[in-house]
């Protein structure tokens, strides 16, 4: 019965909610961390795919917010990993012209909204999703940046680090 109720809860969860990890199964932090090297480890693979880049950066934003605010995960990853996630997020925000003090939920909502609009081939909707005060360059310029991101070495390092910490069977306090 417990398993059925848990499955029902997963089925009704809104994957587009600002705090939800898209595409994960089970624990969303674990899913995002295991997928991180493939999503935002090397963003050059996403040139010309602004929707995919937006989702990857939403994932980075999610991890940078969720890990230090989780009673469980903040004790399961190294402090340097949490710092690396923050540095990677800050680097990505700077590259996209996102305000440093923007709420993570607002940034994720804008990036995910743009990705959904691009998937529907709605350029105006994508620009609109990125035209909030948090996206200081405006929608059109932010989309251009998403289509051709510069190298983000801090984000790449964060992807590897969070993946290693989640994959490691060792207790972080014994490392």
Describe the structure in your own words.
It is a single chain. The protein has 175 residues and is mainly α. It has one domain (27-168). It has eight helices and no strands. It has helices spanning 2-12, 28-39, 50-69, 79-96, 104-119, 123-129, 139-147, 153-167. The termini are far apart. The model is unreliable at 1-22 (pLDDT under 50).
Estimate the global geometry from the Cα principal axes. Answer: globular
Strand content: under 5%
Counting structural domains, the number is 1
Biggest β-sheet strands, sense, barrel: none
What is the β-strand count? Answer: 0
Write down the oligomeric state: single chain
The Cα radius of gyration reads 16 Å
Low-pLDDT segments, ≥5 res: 1-22
The helix-strand sequence is HHHHHHHH
Distance between the termini: 39 Å
* Class derived from helix and strand content: mainly alpha
- Total of helices: 8
**What's the helical proportion of residues?**
55-70%
Give the overall pLDDT as a whole number.
85
């Amino acid at each position: 019965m417990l398993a059925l109720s848990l499955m029902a809860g997963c089925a009704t969860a809104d994957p587009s909610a600002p705090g939800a990890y898209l595409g994960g199964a089970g624990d969303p932090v674990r899913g995002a961390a295991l997928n991180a090297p493939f999503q935002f480890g090397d963003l050059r693979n996403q040139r010309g795919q602004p929707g995919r880049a937006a989702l990857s950066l939403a994932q980075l934003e999610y991890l940078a917010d969720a890990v230090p605010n989780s009673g469980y995960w903040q004790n399961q990853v190294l402090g340097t990993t949490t710092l690396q996630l923050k540095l990677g997020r800050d680097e990505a925000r700077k590259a996209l012209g996102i305000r440093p003090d923007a709420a993570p939920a607002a940034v994720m909502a804008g990036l995910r909204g743009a990705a959904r609009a691009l998937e529907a081939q709605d350029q105006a909707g994508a620009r609109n999703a990125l035209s909030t005060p948090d996206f200081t360059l405006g929608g059109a310029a932010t989309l251009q940046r998403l289509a051709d991101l510069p190298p983000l070495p801090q984000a790449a390092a964060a992807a590897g680090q969070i993946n290693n910490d989640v994959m490691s069977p060792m207790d972080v306090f014994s490392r």
